[in-house]
Amino acid sequence: MSRNALSRDQVLEAAAGLVKQHGPDALTMRKLAAGLGTAVTSIYWHVGNRESLLDALVERTVQEMGAIRPTGRTPAERIVSVARRLRRELRARPHLIAMVHERGLTERMFLPAQRALVHEVHAAGLRGARAAEAVRAVQVQIVGFVLVERNRERAPVQSPGEEELWGSASAEDDPAEQDPALARALARPADPERLFAVSVRALVESLLSQGNRQAGQAN
Amino acid sequence: MSRNALSRDQVLEAAAGLVKQHGPDALTMRKLAAGLGTAVTSIYWHVGNRESLLDALVERTVQEMGAIRPTGRTPAERIVSVARRLRRELRARPHLIAMVHERGLTERMFLPAQRALVHEVHAAGLRGARAAEAVRAVQVQIVGFVLVERNRERAPVQSPGEEELWGSASAEDDPAEQDPALARALARPADPERLFAVSVRALVESLLSQGNRQAGQAN
DNA sequence: ACCTGAACACCGTTCAAGT
DNA sequence: ACCTGAACACCGTTCAAGT
Questions:
Q1: Greatest alpha-carbon span in chain B
Q2: Could you say which of A132, A158, A175 has the minimum Cβ distance to residue B186?
Q3: Is the CB of B5 under 7 A from strand C?
Q4: Residues B57 and B134 both lie in one domain
Q5: How many C-beta neighbours within 10 Å does residue A58 have?
Q6: DSSP 8-state class, residue B190
Q7: pLDDT, tens digit, for every residue of B95-104?
Q8: What is the C-alpha separation between B174 and B2, in angstroms, rounded?
Q9: How many CB atoms sit inside 10 A of residue B113's CB?
Q10: Is the distance from CB of B104 to CB of A152 less than 8 angstroms?
């Protein structure tokens, strides 16, 4: 009797819209059905249940995460450019990325990026197991940073906050006493852009310098 | 009429038990009431509502995260020891830590650890804003690593997994072609213990080496 | 001050029945 | 093959009423 047959894709599209705007909690089967003008049970026919609907959305997001083109001249620069790009992509889809993370698929989502990192690390002279380790270290650092960063952004007022702890005088042997500039710097909110660049660069330089020292043998 | 008056602490204790064992989703007001042998509404009188109950549990967890005692001789060693300790603490309370994270309180939970890191970075000769940056970089790396690590553990089979991608032959310019040891290493599951140590050490060495080069001026 | 049951407005999911 | 309403078993929360 349905003149406008409901398709699985329509359901996914509408569901993605709800999640993008108001987060996964806003996606209820009943609201979704109401928005599509069908009975709740029709949705079940198309996508199984709520859990597999979310799974499908996550799968979509993983696919959307396209290839990465590094820019820059040195391998270190190019790795940093990949890192920047990844950070941007992640921050553009907060809700969906959180869902990918919750389902433990972050790793898989980053396989394309991993290939790019492998290329650069290899170009820098790292080989074998050591190269693999460097790639993974950088990868974990990037993803970890974004996770922590998002956490910090969602954070409320940070009740006893860093200012209170570092602003007031403390124990005698506390370095903050002797180094007011350090204390002040920690009392200020961190600049994530700069912290990200500094962290990645520091890690990459350290990892790649091993490549210059070693001849090229594995493990 | 209550001979055994229900206390707020009893409610928190029972709630913490439910969360620790089966995660936050298992904590429903009705189950909690049933376990305590009271009406659901009594719980509301003591803790407000479910949200503020969870808030209270999170607050508890933050408090439990005690002081950190670094071990080792060099500042680098001592920082690594702090990192190890933090990682262990985090992994011991997965559900509660996830809740702390969701509420954006990870930062605050780590203020004690931050103090320890400040001390060591200062001992290594870093000063002012640069010292603060080093502390934050290490801190973010540790927390980020654990978040990614937990994600990886929860992950299912990783359908197209790393093996498939790196195991088979690929594009010509792919370094994996020329470096089978690298390809094999990436096909194997990562050893998180080792990766953590390598990452932290690499970052710390790189950051602390700046301390040896600079005189000690701020920013 | 503390506890209670009843009621409200939501959920996800199943099932038997329609076309 | 696709859609439907009714029903079930859950939720969190409020409220008026008890002691």
A1: 81
A2: A132
A3: yes
A4: no
A5: 20
A6: P
A7: 888 888 888 8
A8: 74
A9: 24
A10: yes
